[in-house]
Amino acid sequence: MAVRSRITGVGGFVPSRVVTNHDLAAMMDTSDEWIVERTGIQQRHWAGPDDSPSGFALEAANAALTAANVAKEDIDLLLVATLSPDHFFPGTACFLQAKMGISEIPALDIRQQCTGFIYGTSIADQFIRTGMYEKVLVIGSEIHSKGLDKTDAGRDVTVLFGDGAGAIVMEATDVESTDDSQVFSTHLHADGSGADALWLSSPGMAHPDGLVTHAHLDRGDQYPKMNGRAVYVNAVKRMSEGIHDALAANEVTIDDVDLFFFHQANLRINEAVAQRLQIPAGKVYNTIQKFGNTTAATIPLGMKEAVEDGTLQPGMLVACAAFGSGFTWGSMLIRW
Length: 336
Ligand code: ACO
Hints:
Elements (H helix, E strand, L loop, with lengths): L1 E12 L3 E4 H5 L6 H8 L3 E4 L6 H16 L8 E5 L10 H9 L6 E4 L5 H14 L5 E8 L12 H4 L5 E12 L6 E9 L7 E2 L14 H6 L5 E2 L1 H22 L9 E4 L4 H11 L10 H4 L6 H11 L8 E8 L3 E8 L1
Parallel strand pairs: 4-5, 4-6, 11-12
Antiparallel strand pairs: 1-7, 2-3, 6-7, 8-13, 9-10, 12-13
The chain binds acetyl coenzyme *A.
The site of acetyl coenzyme *A has 21 residues, from helix 2, helix 6, helix 8 and strand 12.
C-alpha cells in the first residue's frame, strides 16, 4: 500500500454571455471563416462587468466540492492558477479564500499560464504524497475578455481567448495496484528564453519609467502580445514530448490510454500533436470550439464537460498535456 493523490471531484463554470465569431467580426476586422479555419474556435464566453476571476473560481470550487462530497472546512490547501488575477497583489487565492469563508489554510497563486493547472496538480500531488496535506483544491480561473484589445490591432490574440474556471478536489488515497484511481506522475518544464513570445509587458516593475505609464498605454503594452508561429511550433513539440514523458515514466503506451486532455490553444495544434503521436482523433477531448482558450481553466473545465457527457468514466487511464506562455509545459498520467 502506498499513499497517492486522486481526483475525487471536478467542477467548472463559464459566464452566460456567449460571443460568437460573428460578434467579434462586428468589433474588428476578422471573420468567422478565418477564425474557424485557423483555430477551430466557433464561440467563447465573456464575463460581465462585475465578474472577477476569484468569483468564477468560487463557482468552480463549490461545484468540485459538491461532486467530491467534501466540506470546504476540510480543505487543507487552496491553489489558484491564473494569468488574469483579480489584482496585481495579493494573489487571487486570497480573494477566493475570503469569498469561500474559510481561513488560515495556505492560499497560493500559480503563475504558469496555460500550464498552471498541471503545475497546480503537481504541487498538490507532492504535498499529498508526503503526508503534509490530505485534501487540496486546485483551481484554474480566467477572465481574459476585460484585458483584450478589441480593435483591429489586437485581432490575432483577441479571437483566441475565452473566460471560465475549472476546479478539482484532490485527496489522499491508499493504493494497492495501478487499477486504483490515482495520479501516477506529473512532469513539469519551462524555457524562459521564450518569455517574450507570449506576454503582457505592463504593468511591470522591470520598466525603467514605472509600473504602468501613459507611454505604455499609448504603445498598447497592457495587451497581450504573441508570436503566433513560435507558439504554434513549440506547443506541438512540447506537448508531444510531455505525453512521451508521462507514458515512459509509467511504462505504458498510447494504446493503453483511454482519453487525452490537451490544453486548448488551437484545434490545429491538438490535431498536429495527435497526428505526430498517432493518437486516434476520438481519444482527444476538445472543447476549444465552444470555449476558446481559457488558459489555466482549460483542462479542469474539459474534465467537467467530459464527466457530464459521460465520456470520462471511472477507471479510465487519462493523459494530460499543456503548453503555454513562459514558455512552460507539463503533463500527467492519472487513473480516473
Ligand atoms: N482575423 C483575420 N485575419 C487575421 C487575424 C484575425 N483574427 N489575425 C491575424 N490575421 C491576419 C494577419 O494579419 C495576416 O495577414 P497578412 O498575411 O496580410 O499579413 C494573416 O492573417 C496571417 O497571419 P498569420 O499570423 O501568419 O496566421 P497564422 O496562419 O500563423 O495563424 C495563429 C495565426 C492562428 C495565431 C497561429 O499562428 C497560431 O495558432 N499560433 C498559436 C498561437 C496560439 O494558439 N496561441 C494561443 C495562446 S498560447 C497558448 O495557449 C499556448
